[in-house]
Amino acid sequence: MSEVLKVAMPKGRIYKKAAELFRSAGIVIPTDVDDSRRLVIPIPEANMEFIMAKPVDVPTYVEYGVADIGIVGKDVLLEENRDVYELLDLGIARCRMSVIALPDRQPGIHLRVATKYPNVATRYFREQGEQVEVIKLNGSIELAPLIGLADRIVDMVETGQTLKDNGLVELESIFGITSRLIANRVSYRMKNDAIQKLCDQLEKVMPSVVKS
Amino acid sequence: MSKPQGFEKPIGVRDYLPRATRRLRRIERSVLDCMSRWGYDPIKTPTMEYYDTVGLASSTPDRKLYKLLNNRGQTLVLRSEMTAPIARVASSLLREESLPLRLSYHANVFRAIEEEAGREAEFFQTGVELVGDRSPEADAEVIALAIASMEAAGVQSFKFAMGHVGFLNGLFDESLPDRAEDQQALKERLLKRDYVGFREAAESLGLGAKQQQELEGLLRLRGDVSVCDQAAGLSRHRLAQESLEHLRSVWEALQDYGVSQHVMIDLTMIGDFSYYTGMVFEGYAAELGFPVCSGGRYDNLLKQFGRDVPSTGFALKTTRILDGVGDPADEEERPVLIVYDLKQRAQALNEAARIRSEGGAAVTILAADNNPHQPAESHRYSQVLLFTEEGNEIR
Asked: Which of A88, A89, A186 sits opposite B290 (nearest CB)?
């Protein structure tokens, strides 16, 4: 029996899709795991241990090696910029990072951008040759243009319904987002067989990656 | 930023209290001893170097160098690693020494860190440089020594991965002739360990299906020496073939050292291209989330100091090992406490001298009212000897 693989799982939206993908790959995850409130869940059936983490913290756990591998959105990876292996594009939880604004709003001389992703936003506008003031918010980003805090927001768009409901428009899509399988630098070597086996299993059932 | 409080020190540096210092010294001693048994002579170089020489030659990115100005307006750096300083010494002071040179070091090095935690601004490295030998034998020797050093440092479970810069250079040169930018893009992805990005980049190159498959197949080239055989089919490029041949020879030597079971070959492992020129390797310890050893061949470095000779070496990240290696029952000999009064001081100090000369440790204190015969911290001492009026006594 090889060593237990510690998996940092993002709680919430992505977890359901990831668990579904794991199951379809033949990895046994008991159903009571899905609704468990426990933070560390041993799954002897799969020789794994799930660490239920806030999505944005997944790369941190993996970089430090307290989790061997993790599942996390590309949005978080680009924001956090952690030194980890990015092994697979799992093709789940598909959405995009976009620049959003009110349709009729003319920005002042000084562009203000509200976002949960300050690094992503800063990098993007820099590449566009623009220096902007980035305001970090922690949720309900759509509020910012509505109440006059910012001219633009940079945020994840899944269906676009929230935007529509609030009269906002997507000006530009910055990059596509899917969930990725990441691995710690040391675990990738020390537990290579287990990780490679998991990759092979997942690759067989991953939704094929649509090329942008 | 607010004024620091008295207990604070700059971010990224740390104090080593007696217990940690003892362990660090034990690791340092046993690793340097191990290196010396392989014929590597210890060397020390200054903490500060010129930016224009060692600073520019170093593999550390510019933004991670600590730079300072001296009183003549020259830019200095705090050394960020030991390879460039040793290259300087090997090319100057040791210029007349016959090759190969075998040098070892244990030193603190400095890196300007970005904000994230877990990075250190000052840490210890213990390593070697083998200067003047370009053979696979030399590469195998430093890997075998790295493994021996890891064991000497007390790391129980570890693994090494080895690759070769030349293989990828050759392969990419063949599949993407005259497309330096695309080659660079692929390498960057591998350097950032971004396999997803690598596959995406490979797909976007407009190559034939077979070639694209071959590129993506790279990501699976991991394992024992049989990887070299699989890879040999991927490229007929001379550099790629030579590199695989070199790796094979290194592997065979490692087998004869009896350590190949600790090593895997990973052809996607490339290290910093601007620096390494051949074989590269990394070492990992089971208990630690970060690599604890890195090394490889850098045949172009010494040229920058005016002596065009090849070189290979490695550094252990000793500070990380210190964090991870279990304490082998930290039973450093506790000292004997000798309590005396003035009348018997000579006798007491004599006894202390005797203990010390035999390699033991002794602490002496004058008995006084505010200096009770049996201090509260008696657990610090293995034994308490009394040289007082009440008579000599052992407790």
From this structure: A186
